[in-house]
């Protein structure tokens, strides 16, 4: 057997081997925070500063969200470094967020030396045990020679199949130890099926249902984005002529201006797709998982419809909604097969019903949200709509969680593929600021706008320090209503207006921005909004714009908790 | 789907790796499902572990749990069966006073009739082993209770299925 010189081994430290592994995986950016148990790795990293970028965050949670933002925008694996104990436990929120939103991420945590494991050593915590329920896979390394294979497996698992977060916990002695370095990319793990085999019969069964449908409705989720199936999805929608609605994780997989894009599903989604879910005869779910925020009461959800579910993860099939036809597999492959098997149709009359319902929603909700009467306070919707118009819907929008999130999803008219980054499944307040930083590193040529409420902003506000130190260009829009707005809205509607601990007495965000040397402005009057937004969007480098919005504005439409989607309320 | 609760024997084939017990038990814990017994051992395939887990859930719940178990990276395959579809055994050990063997003829009859085995005899105590169905073990326990049981322990259920599982074929397909 010939020995390739490419695979020639050399003896290096475990720490150096780790960095070499990352380079072999084409990692260009690491988000992290050093500490005692990961010092050998940081020491090795110092020698690779020319080859690999490291962003020093201000809190480990920020590193995970930044890695998520980076991964979501670039389609690459986000990489995080943190030390043992509190460093590792601070990652958990972001890991849980990445798990529920299927974001590929590899977190590397330092661990106390192997002889100290289980002794309650300084900064020792059971990272394996703590991270297990929120990771796709995790592994602890106690010997340097185990590092290359573990890293290769970790990257493969994180990015393949339904992506997710992976934790590699490396003891300090493994970091110091020596190993013969050889890196082999992993393409297979015996017990793990990344891409289930596609059953041809499911394709023709789906095509048959679609061809005979009179009132079909497509629901698309993040699966379309994760599969990189932009063209395949659009071709399917165009040929089938089926009205298509998105989950917030699927937003920006189809241009908002596409004539068949009928808007947002779920609790604060559009009127039409929610009502029509209970009218359609065939429901085609693509890369979405029927989250309860999308379905409302399951016992009254699309009971009249035949359900076709295109999905990569077998555990999602019939988990919440029984599938009549399950098309298991990567939708980048299954969609073209279905597109080929269906006849070109248009559903003009059926589509016009969506348009009628949109008009109804426009008259009752949208009009006053995007252009409120002059005596009304500034609304979140008008700010987002203005930004959408000014940026032609071409920016990357990173949103936090709450009212502003729903408004941003509803009123920013996305014209570019893969441009919406938000915390969907976990609903993590504090997500947006660090995620926006990561997104800018993942897409340096695009404008990144973080839209955040005054509550969520203060959960990870320290990442302003990361922005200042790194000089990364992130536009920060604070929609300030001096309330935890979504909780306040629920208190108003369902708890007799008992505003239990939702009012915020906020610091002066202008002074805070100044402290971090970030240019800032505050808008309190409508007449100043337009020029302030121009300055915000055209600024060179980061900029913080705070807009004071109506304190007690509500987000509508709304499917009340426990109600059916067809019981969606316009007010 | 019907919501009737059944006792299921779950058989899971996995890689033999550290931490899998946590991963698998967490699936039940997260859904507030009590594990009635759990056993982990080697299987007919070298390097592959076999888990036998007993739970009471509805079939709908059972199917979803199987999906979540199989989703774990290091799980090869998971199955669920009703009692009638498996051959199963539970085994137990009784520690009893050795005086009983000499003083009481009845206990010798009980041991004989129940097909239990004396695995060790010491001056002070002897150890009795019994394998069988849960009911048989329980009956023996009831009979021996009157004599004073020094220690009692019962192992989790182990079961093989009547249908072939062909895990080797699954492993081949995974390659």
Describe this structure in words.
- The complex is a heterodimer of chains A (571) and B (175).
- Chain A has 571 residues and is an alpha/beta fold.
- Chain A has three domains: 173 residues, Thiamin diphosphate (ThDP)-binding fold, Pyr/PP domains (Rossmann fold, 3-Layer(aba) Sandwich); 154 residues, TPP-binding domain (Rossmann fold, 3-Layer(aba) Sandwich), CATH 3.40.50.1220; 178 residues, Thiamin diphosphate (ThDP)-binding fold, Pyr/PP domains (Rossmann fold).
- Chain A is built from 23 helices and 20 strands.
- Chain A has a six-stranded parallel sheet.
- In chain A, helix 1 packs parallel to helix 7.
- Chain A is globular and about 70 Å long.
- The N and C termini of chain A lie far apart (74 Å).
- The N terminus of chain A is likely disordered.
- With 175 residues, chain B is of the alpha+beta class.
- In chain B, strands 5, 6, 7, 8 and 9 form a five-stranded antiparallel sheet that branches. Chain B has a four-stranded antiparallel sheet with strand order 2-3-1-4.
- The mean pLDDT of chain B is 93.
- Classes of the chains: A alpha/beta (571), B alpha+beta (175).
- At the A-B interface, strand 6 of A face helix 1 and helix 2 of B.
Return the CATH architecture of the largest domain in chain B.
Answer: 2-Layer Sandwich
- Helix proportion range of chain A: 25-40%
Q: Spell out the CATH superfamily of the largest domain in chain A.
A: Thiamin diphosphate (ThDP)-binding fold, Pyr/PP domains
The largest β sheet of chain B comes out as:
5 strands, antiparallel
The CA-CA distance between the termini of chain A, in Å, is 74 Å
**How many E strands of chain B?**
9
Oligomer: heterodimer
- Give unreliable regions of chain B as ranges: none
The top level CATH class name of the largest domain in chain B? Alpha Beta
Query: Which term fits the overall shape of chain A?
Result: globular
User: Biggest sheet of chain A, strands in spatial order?
Assistant: 3-2-4-5-7-6
- Number of helical segments of chain B? 6
User: Domains counted in the coordinates of chain A: how many?
Assistant: 3
Tally of separate domains of chain B: 2
- The structural class of chain A is alpha/beta
**Percent of residues in helices of chain B:** 25-40%
Over the alpha carbons, how many angstroms does the gyration radius of chain B reach?
A: 20 Å
């Amino acid at each position: 057997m010939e020995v390739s010189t490419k695979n020639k081994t050399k003896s290096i430290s475990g720490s150096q081997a780790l960095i070499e592994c990352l380079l072999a995986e084409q990692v260009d950016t690491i988000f992290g925070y050093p500490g005692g148990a990961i010092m050998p790795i940081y020491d090795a990293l110092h020698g690779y500063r020319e080859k690999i970028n490291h962003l020093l965050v201000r809190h480990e949670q920020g590193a995970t969200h930044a890695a998520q933002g980076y991964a979501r925008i670039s389609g690459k694996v986000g990489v995080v470094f943190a030390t043992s104990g509190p460093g590792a436990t601070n990652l958990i929120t972001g890991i849980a967020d990445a798990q529920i939103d299927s974001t590929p991420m590899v977190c590397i945590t330092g661990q106390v030396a192997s002889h100290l494991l289980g002794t309650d050593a300084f900064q020792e915590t059971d990272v394996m045990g703590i991270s297990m329920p929120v990771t796709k896979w995790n592994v602890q390394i106690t010997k340097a020679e185990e590092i290359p294979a573990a890293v290769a497996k970790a990257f493969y698992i994180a990015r393949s199949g339904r992506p997710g977060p992976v934790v590699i916990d490396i003891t300090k002695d493994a970091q110091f130890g020596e190993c013969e370095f050889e890196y082999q990319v992993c393409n297979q793990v015996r017990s793990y099926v990344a891409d289930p085999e596609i059953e041809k019969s499911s394709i023709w069964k789906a095509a048959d249902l679609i061809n005979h449908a009179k009132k079909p409705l497509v629901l698309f989720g993040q699966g379309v984005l994760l599969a990189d199936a932009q063209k395949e999805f659009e071709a399917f929608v165009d040929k089938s002529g089926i009205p298509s609605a998105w989950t917030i994780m699927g937003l920006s997989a189809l241009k908002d201006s596409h004539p068949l894009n009928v808007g947002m599903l779920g609790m604060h989604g559009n009127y039409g797709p929610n009502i029509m879910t209970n009218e359609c005869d065939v429901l085609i779910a693509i890369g979405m998982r029927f989250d309860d925020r999308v379905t409302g009461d399951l016992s009254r959800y699309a009971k009249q419809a035949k359900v076709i579910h295109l999905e990569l993860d077998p555990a999602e099939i019939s988990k919440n909604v029984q599938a009549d036809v399950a098309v298991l597999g990567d939708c980048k492959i299954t969609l073209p097969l279905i597109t080929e098997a269906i006849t070109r149709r248009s559903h003009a009359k059926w589509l016009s019903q969506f348009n009628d319902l949109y008009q109804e929603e426009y008259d009752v909700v949208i009009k006053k949200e995007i252009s409120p009467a002059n005596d009304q306070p500034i609304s979140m919707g008008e700010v987002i709509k203005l930004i959408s118009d000014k940026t032609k819907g071409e920016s990357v929008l990173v949103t936090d969680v709450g009212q502003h999130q729903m408004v941003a999803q509803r009123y920013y008219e996305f014209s570019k593929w893969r441009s919406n980054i938000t915390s969907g499944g976990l609903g993590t307040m504090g997500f947006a600021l660090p995620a926006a930083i990561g997104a800018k590193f993942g897409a340096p040529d695009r404008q990144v706008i973080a839209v955040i409420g005054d509550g969520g902003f203060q959960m990870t506000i320290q990442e302003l320090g990361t922005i200042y130190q790194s000089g990364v260009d992130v536009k920060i829009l604070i929609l300030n209503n001096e309330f935890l707005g979504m909780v306040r809205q629920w208190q108003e509607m369902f708890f007799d207006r008992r505003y239990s601990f939702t009012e915020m007495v906020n610091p002066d965000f202008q002074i805070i921005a100044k402290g971090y040397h970030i240019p800032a402005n505050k808008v309190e009057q409508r007449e100043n909004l337009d020029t302030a937004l121009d300055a915000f969007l055209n600024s060179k480098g980061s900029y913080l714009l705070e807009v004071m919005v109506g304190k007690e504005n509500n987000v509508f439409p709304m499917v009340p908790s426990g109600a059916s989607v067809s019981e969606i309320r316009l007010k | 789907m019907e919501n009737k609760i059944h006792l299921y024997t779950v058989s899971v084939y996995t890689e033999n790796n550290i931490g899998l017990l946590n991963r698998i038990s967490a699936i039940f814990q997260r859904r507030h499902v009590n594990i009635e017994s759990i056993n982990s051992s080697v299987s007919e395939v070298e390097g592959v572990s076999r888990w036998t887990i007993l739970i009471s859930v509805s079939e709908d719940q059972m199917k979803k749990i199987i999906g979540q178990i199989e989703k774990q990276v290091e799980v090869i395959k998971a199955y669920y069966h009703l009692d009638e579809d498996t051959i199963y055994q539970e085994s137990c050990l009784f520690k009893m006073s050795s005086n009983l063997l000499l003083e009481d003829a009845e206990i010798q009859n009980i041991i004989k009739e129940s097909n239990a085995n004396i695995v060790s005899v010491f001056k002070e105590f002897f150890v009795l082993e019994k394998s069988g169905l849960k009911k048989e073990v329980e009956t023996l326990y009831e009979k021996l209770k009157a004599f004073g049981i020094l220690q009692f322990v019962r192992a989790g259920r182990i079961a093989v299925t009547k249908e072939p599982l062909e895990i080797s074929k699954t492993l081949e397909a995974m390659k």
